[in-house]
Structures are given as structure tokens and as C-alpha cells.
Specification:
about 240 residues, alpha+beta, Alpha-Beta Plaits, 9-stranded mixed β-sheet, A/G_cyclase, Adenylate/guanylate cyclase domain-containing protein, adenylate cyclase activity
């Protein structure tokens, strides 16, 4: 969100807080799928009953500044972020994409099992993408990177938050599904975990037994993990990146 300077008034700030906290007509409607952003106001919200969340983050990103100076750091982040966003944006069920630092997340409609499968397929594409990114990094003397991917399914609260009247606002997603996907992402692709971690609800909603066989249970994290890939992208890599 771009800022647009307005002087701060503590009394008006207190009035805004009072208006929000004293409001008695806030409406939080339960819905099956993600509604349009345009239907959000500063006094309503939506509980989306069946939501998917996918988070991606670079492992040990703080160490990259020690390996490269800023121009190459910019190349790392631009390459990684642009293509992760491209994959998320290519999934018709992905309705929200957010970027915070090197963390990229997507919020998905997940009413049906085929939508949950599609979200996991996007996670596999992102995992395969990392091989292609690292191929180009190697060719240009840039340090290779690893990414962790966390996927969860559950219920989420969608609200509009920001500075009312300023034009500065954003859609905010809250709830266990978002927290869980973020935490799984933080644990994924570390020394003892696979690149993709999914919660139990995602695992149980994979329609085919064959799909579930790509994952094994992680007792310490109470989730399922797998090194899933996209076959088409991996075949392209083998043909073009050797």
C-alpha cells in the first residue's frame, strides 16, 4: 500500500478506535466461497467456511545478504517472487496473493476436493520451479536458494482493514488455516523435513490414494510432508537445463 501523508491527530485516532470497538452492527456473514473484494466495508467481514492457504518462503534468506551485494539480491528476489506469483495467478481458484518480504502467499477457494488437489498441484509446480530458478542462478554465479511450502485447508475470516477515509486499506485474512499454512511453511525444507508440508485436512481431502502416497506423516509437526513435483516442468528442466 502506498502512503499518502496525513498528519496524525491523537483525538481523532481515539475516536476511530472507539467507533470500531463500540460498533454493534458489525456483520460477519458465513459464506461457502471467497466473495468479491468490493463487498467488503470497514464494518463487515466474511467467514469463508472452506478456504485453502498456500505459503512459500526462502530458507535462510537472511544469509543471502552476506553472499551477494544488493544488485544480485534484487535479481534473486525478483526472479523468485515473479515466478511464484505467476504460478499462483495461473490457478483460477487462487483469489488473493500477498507478498511480504520473501514470503509469498495465496488464498484459495476450496469448496471441493478437486480444488484442494489443484492447490497441492500448485505447490508441486512451485517445488519444480525452484530447480529452474537455481539453474539460471548457477549460470550467473548466483547462490542457489531453497524454499519451504506450507499448505492448509480450513475456515478463515476475511476483513477490510486500514485507515478509513485515506484510501489506504487492504484485505486481511485471519484464522487457523492461515496460521497453520504459515507455520508449516516455516518448517518446510529444513534439515529433517520435505519441501512441501500439508495439514491433515488437506491430506484427507486428496481424492486418490495414489496422491496420498506421495506424503508421509511427520509426528513432530503433526502434518504430512512430501517432495512432490510437477512432471511436465521436471521433464522440461531435464531437456532444457542441462
Amino acid at each position: 500500500m502506498k502512503s499518502n501523508y496525513k498528519s496524525y491527530d491523537v483525538a481523532k485516532s481515539s475516536d476511530r478506535i472507539k467507533e470500531i470497538t463500540n460498533s454493534s452492527n458489525t456483520n460477519y456473514e458465513e459464506v461457502d466461497e471467497i466473495p468479491s473484494r468490493d463487498s467488503l466495508t470497514f464494518t463487515n467481514g466474511f467467514y469463508v467456511k472452506k478456504t485453502g492457504a498456500l505459503f512459500v518462503d526462502i530458507r535462510k534468506s537472511s544469509e543471502l545478504s552476506g553472499a551477494h551485494k544488493r544488485p544480485r539480491l534484487a535479481k534473486i528476489y525478483r526472479s523468485y517472487i515473479s515466478e511464484v506469483v505467476a504460478l499462483l495467478n495461473s490457478n483460477t481458484d487462487c483469489k488473493e496473493i500477498n507478498i511480504v518480504g520473501d514470503a509469498v502467499s495465496g488464498i484459495f477457494n476450496a469448496q471441493y476436493k478437486h480444488q484442494i488437489y489443484s492447490m497441492v498441484s500448485t505447490a508441486a509446480q512451485i517445488n519444480s520451479l525452484m530447480k529452474i530458478i537455481n539453474y539460471h542462478f548457477r549460470k550467473n554465479g548466483i547462490v542457489e536458494i531453497k524454499a519451504g511450502i506450507g499448505v492448509a485447508f480450513g475456515r478463515a475470516l476475511m476483513i477490510k482493514a486500514g485507515y478509513s477515509g485515506s484510501g489506504i486499506n487492504e484485505v486481511v485474512w485471519m484464522g487457523e488455516v492461515v496460521n497453520r499454512a504459515s507455520k508449516l511453511c516455516n518448517e518446510a525444507n529444513k534439515d529433517t523435513t520435505s519441501p512441501v508440508l500439508i495439514n491433515e485436512d488437506v491430506y484427507n481431502n486428496l481424492e486418490d490414494k495414489e496422491d496420498r502416497e506421495f506424503f508421509n506423516y511427520n509426528y513432530l509437526l503433526d502434518c504430512y510432508q512430501g517432495n512432490i513435483i510437477n512432471i511436465v516442468m521436471d521433464e522440461w528442466y531435464e531437456e532444457n537445463c542441462k
